[in-house]
Amino acid sequence: MQQSVDPRPHCLALGYGRWVTRRSEQLSEALQEYVEAHSTPPEEILTELAEQTASMFGARAGMQIGPEQGTFMTLLARLVGAASAVEVGTFTGYSAICVARGLTDGGRLLCCDISEEWTSVAREYWKRAGLADRIELRLGPAARTLRELPAGTTFDYAFIDADKTSYLEYWDLIVPMIRSNGVILADNTLWSGRVADQRSIDDEVQAIRQFNDHASADGRVDIVLLPIGDGLSLARKR
Fold first, then answer.
1. CATH fold of 67-237
2. What percent of the chain has pLDDT above 90?
3. Reported pTM
4. Domain residue ranges in the chain
């Protein structure tokens, strides 16, 4: 997997009294604050992780999901009774904590990334969150990691949030592994609204458009593109 640096402008906003990554770009600042105030707040360890990520990586911290998306992902894992999950693109581990926290007792999350630097932060916070025993990190190209999984491997839940030009490849590797009524989430599928701007023709926006077209036409799933964060596609395996 190649984890690309997101070139779009993101802002870091004070939320829940501390610095967190603000990702629902279609919302005004006032609406963002209202959403956060009427949602279950992230646990303290997530707020600390968001702060450390911002202090260590500056603008790159914009790759991290926001608090309302994290809460949604935890709730979704609990609602579907997920016991096994896979994440493509881990960064500093915020989303992995959210997914792992929603798994059933004894549940397992497989994380795929290529950066030892970024995931070293993740490992620290997984341990602090008491989740290190349910998260497995594999460093290396995610497509190779997925292809090397044993035949018959299945997951209840998947989250794709890595290099956008490989989204189609990740999707086609993951969909066959998802059990019936399992879910797949793909992040950044609005790409700051540029997917609807035909003047935007760079590689990443075109890759997201191609992915959105492919996923919405895939007869193996039912799918909805939600305006959460930078766009979050939610698919249910039929």
1. Rossmann fold (3.40.50)
2. 85
3. 0.92
4. 67-237
